[in-house]
Amino acid sequence: MRIVFLSFFSTALVTFSALPVLAQSYKVTGSINIGGNGGWDYLTADSENQRLYVSHGNEVVVVDPDSEKVVGHIAGLNRIHGIAVANDLGLGFISDGGSNEVVAFQLQNLAVKQKIKAGTNPDGVVYDSVSKRVFAFNGRSGDATAIEGATGDVAGTIKLGGKPEFPVSDGNGSVYANIEDKSEIVRIDSKKLTVTSHWSLSPCESPSGLAIDHANRRLFAVCDNKMMAVVDADSGKVLATPAIGEGPDAAGYDPGKRLAFSSNGESGTLTIIREDGDDKYSEAGTVKTAPGARTMALDEKTHKIYLSTASFGPPTAATPSGARPRPTIVPGSFKLLVVSPE
Asked: Which is it for strands 101-106 and 143-148: parallel, antiparallel or unpaired?
């Protein structure tokens, strides 16, 4: 995932527009302190087993969301990006961008089972239950590595024609991924390992996070130009482009609430998007979260949303190349924000 440059804002406040019957107010209800040093990327909610898998530097931190306590670590890795869970196999899979590997681990005891070679800088990772394959989307090599979930054997490599970001599976044999530098979505046949469609997201630009409404066949891609593209998962048609916050990097969809979400790291907000009917979508509210809260996981059982962030110090010095200096992360300040429906 991309690093979002941060502006500094005050802490959690909640603002809302008028909400329809289906929408619901949300607020920051607490935080889970994790500590340690280093940056972060994706986090994943396993609603079936009530576990959160949180990328943090060179390890995955495992959190019990009920007790809000850290219950385990998967360490010794190198620049982790994403985590996918395959409950039917009893396995989880980590994309290790620094080692160009996918790391399989046992869900029961968090023990590493094997390390599987992927492409260059595997980033987004998803498990497809139809093919029982894991798909790692490699940011620098512009392809996806398909892995047999049960054995770890590489089933094939799929050229994507651009830099992939977040993927989702529809549970019917298709895997979708945002292509950041082409502003499009690709659709992959998970059994044949072929790209079946390239769909433009215009006017949505530079997409990152992606979520899916399985029942109604809708995709939700969040983009750099402060909009979410709502896409028909069968035709690829862009149906709506509701406004979201600055610096989005993850998306979520809650089927129980029929709401989509965008976590916006630069504006420090969580945007709530509702369907108004006839494929019309609009902003239902905005939760003030915190600077840097750019990635999120949604627990479909409790309807809570968890966002990774930390406290920030002065930015690093400007570089000769003119690159924008980044804020420094205060050691020991890494945490998860908890956003709950009221």
From this structure: unpaired
- Measured from the Cβ of residue 74, the count of other Cβ atoms closer than 10 Å reads 21
Whether 315 has a pLDDT exceeding 90, the answer reads no
Q: What tokens were used for 217?
A: 């066949």
pLDDT 10s digits, 155-176: 999 999 999 999 999 999 999 9
C-alpha distances in angstroms, 269 versus 41, 139, 247, 288, 299?
17, 26, 9, 5, 18
Strand, coil or helix: 180: helix
Identify the CA nearest to 138 among candidates 168, 175, 174, 163: 163
Q: Tokens 């009893």 map to which residue? A: 90
Burial of 258 (0-12, 13-18, 19+ CB in 10 A): middle
The pLDDT tens digits for 240-255 are 999 999 999 999 999 9
Closest by CA position to 309, among listed 299, 298, 297, 295: 295
Here the contacts of 221-226 (C-beta below 8 Å, separation 24 or greater) are: 221/178, 221/185, 221/251, 222/248, 222/249, 222/250, 222/251, 222/262, 223/183, 223/248, 224/248
Q: What CA–CA distance (Å, rounded) separates 110 from 77?
A: 13
C-alpha 197/C-alpha 175 separation (Å) is 11
Characterize the bridge pairing of strands 133-138 and 122-128.
antiparallel
Alpha helices in the chain (DSSP H): none
Residue environment code for 269-294, b if the CB has 16+ CB neighbours within 10 A, otherwise e: bbbbbbbeeeeebebbbbbbbbbbbb
CB 239 within 8 A of CB 232: yes
User: Whole-structure pTM over 0.85, yes or no?
Assistant: yes
CA distances from 47 to 60, 94, 281, 308 (A): 17, 18, 27, 18
21 burial (CB, 10 Å; 0-12 / 13-18 / 19+) is exposed
